[in-house]
Write a structure and sequence with these properties.
Layout lengths: L2 E6 L5 H4 L13 E7 L2 E10 L12 E3 L2 E12 L2 H8 L10 H18 L2 E9 L4 E6 L8 E4 L5 E4 L18 E3 L4 E7 L5 E8 L24 H18 L6 E5 L4 H16 L7 E6 L4 H13 L2 E6 L2 H6 L1 H8 L4 H20 L2 E5 L4 H5 L27 E3 L5 H9 L2 H4 L8 H6 L8 H4 L6 H4 L7 H9 L5 H5 L1 H4 L8 H13 L27 H8 L1
Helix pairs in contact: 4-11, 8-9, 8-19
Length: about 550
């Protein structure tokens, strides 16, 4: 991942404001740059780089001789940039995939540009010739983007909210920071004084619609209709293609492997494709857990089956508790589910960065939301009631790639009849499992392994991670503190000591920003007092079986 940051119409000294950009330095450890905009003394870009492609000419903002009036700062990967370049005969000046944004914009404007991009991205595009600023974000929000804008036209944009909260502005001492909506772009007018005015915010793509860039890809022709064998064949074709296009990098590729269905399918398919591409290094896979973790055991089976260079990261309860503060600061949230799950993610990403040279990391993230994989989906009143909510964890100085959220794969999956996508015979993701039944990609017991939430699977069934946390926090938050919780935290009042503890840490880092979390995540359609899957009746029944 890289870090992007930009200001338009700043009233304060830019050399002071630029200190805020250093809050996201962890996103790009290879290089950084600040650059003022010609003719606008109160506008500037900041960029922290993780060099994944074109290490020589990949610094940003990207500017090319053909379009001296265009400035681009973006974070992401555009997987179809070469296909589009060849189709439209664009002359590239760099090897950076994001350069395609400049050429597409010049050719057809901003709407055609975002609709043609097959990839994940967040960008800031400045056109000084036409006095416009454009913001854009990918369909599922895989790449983060936050903005703050005042009534008098000061605009600040950043990959993370922490890069904006300390900015100064004469008319607004407390800047409201909010996420930029996934699947949208915004058009703003740039005024002579460097300030901006929003013209329109447009939703350019619905996740169930086939994307416009499908016209230019090289995926083999899919089988028509919804006969089960045709559907399974189409899913295999699209999944294979989703991973193949994501091999685009000059850095070493690795893969997270929890031993669950999703990460196992990704790892097995990825290793197969790396061999076909004659990549010279072995695929490194990574699993994390405490002793007796079911995830570690399952991941070991998969790694043995596919022949990866497997790494196991062991941690104890004390190590997990010690990083809670760092996790909450990094993720900018106090949501209980997110914090629990992110401790393992945080520790494993630090291990990868410190102990290996893998930088581009594949993951099974997004599959549960797409394929209705969470245990509580068994209680959904109807297939139509299930909506997609994507949460991608921040990775630290690594590039995360999520093939399950591929545009073509996800739009096809969501276009299938609802009754094909629901849990069957008490088994979630039945269609996905059935699709790879005869592939021998992964062991059968892993293919049909029941869902285990990440924050639960990293610890033994006897002593779940959420219980470890609650036992520790019981001694940190007393009943008297809980009695005054509503007065201290009137918005999103924590109902448990665990929630109170996380909220305290969050408020220390981000005072007055509690509205960044609109509500606590909880399983739907059931009466649940805790978000852990291990507290649900369906899990308990499966565990006994």
């Amino acid at each position: 991942m890289c870090g992007i940051w930009a200001l338009f119409g700043s009233d304060d000294c830019l050399s002071v404001q630029c200190l805020s950009a250093m809050k996201i330095a962890h996103r790009g450890p290879d290089a950084f740059r600040f650059e003022n905009v010609n003719g606008y003394t109160n506008c500037c870009f900041g960029f922290h780089r993780l060099a994944v492609v074109d290490q020589l000419f990949g610094m940003q903002p990207i500017r090319v001789k053909k379009y001296p009036y265009l400035w681009l700062c973006y974070n992401g990967e555009i997987y179809n940039h070469k296909k589009l370049q060849h189709h439209f005969e664009f002359e590239y000046q760099t090897k950076v995939d994001g350069e395609i944004i400049l050429h597409l914009y010049d050719k057809g404007g901003i709407e055609q540009t975002v609709c043609m991009l097959d990839g994940v991205f967040a960008f800031i595009l400045l056109d000084t010739a036409n006095k416009k600023v454009f913001l854009g974000r990918d369909t599922y929000g895989v790449r983060p983007l936050f903005k703050a804008m005042t009534e008098d036209g000061f605009l600040a944009v950043c990959s993370e909210a922490k890069g904006l909260v300390n900015l100064k502005h004469s008319m607004t001492p407390f800047l409201k920071v909010e996420p930029f909506l996934p699947g949208h772009y915004e058009v703003l007018d740039l005024k002579p004084n460097g300030k901006v005015a929003s013209v329109e915010i447009v939703k350019y793509h619905h996740c169930r619609d086939e994307p416009l860039h499908t016209l230019y890809d090289s995926v083999e022709k899919l089988f028509p209709g919804f006969e089960i064998e045709a559907v399974k064949s189409n899913l295999r074709i699209l999944f294979d293609n989703a991973i193949k296009k994501r091999l685009m990098t000059d850095r070493r590729i690795g893969c997270l492997l929890s031993g669950g269905l999703d990460s196992s399918l990704v790892a097995a398919t990825l290793l197969k494709q790396l061999k076909e591409a004659q990549v010279q290094y072995p695929l490194q896979t990574f699993a994390i857990g405490m002793e007796d973790s079911p995830d570690l055991l399952a991941a070991r089976k998969v790694a043995d089956h596919i022949g990866s260079e497997h790494h196991e990261v062991l941690f104890n309860s004390e190590e997990g508790i010690q990083v809670l503060d760092e996790v909450i600061f990094s993720l900018e949230t106090y949501d209980i589910t997110t914090v629990r799950a992110s401790v393992g993610m945080y520790l494993i990403s630090k291990y990868i960065r410190k102990n290996t040279d893998s930088v581009v990391i594949f993951s099974g993230e997004g599959s549960d939301e797409l394929t209705q994989g969470y245990i509580y989906f068994h209680k959904a009143p109807s297939p139509e009631k299930i909506a997609i909510l994507i949460l991608i964890f921040f990775f630290f100085s690594l590039e995360l790639r999520v093939p399950f959220l591929d545009h073509r794969f996800s739009s096809y999956y969501l276009s299938l009849p609802a009754d094909m996508r629901i849990p069957k015979n008490g088994i979630e993701k039945h269609l996905l499992r059935e699709t790879f039944e005869d592939s021998n990609l992964i062991p059968k017991e892993i293919l049909w392994r029941p869902k285990e939430a990440f924050s639960d699977g990293i610890t033994s069934v006897k002593n779940s991670w959420f219980r470890i946390l609650q036992e520790y926090i019981e001694h940190q938050v007393d009943d008297a503190m809980m009695a005054t919780a509503a007065q201290k935290f009137p918005f999103n009042t924590p109902k448990t000591k665990e929630g109170y503890y996380y909220r305290q840490i969050f408020e220390r880092h981000y005072p007055g920003r509690a509205d960044w979390l609109t509500h606590y995540w909880m399983p739907r359609w059931i009466s649940a007092s805790d978000p852990s899957a291990r507290t649900l009746s369906h899990y308990k029944a499966s565990a006994k079986a």
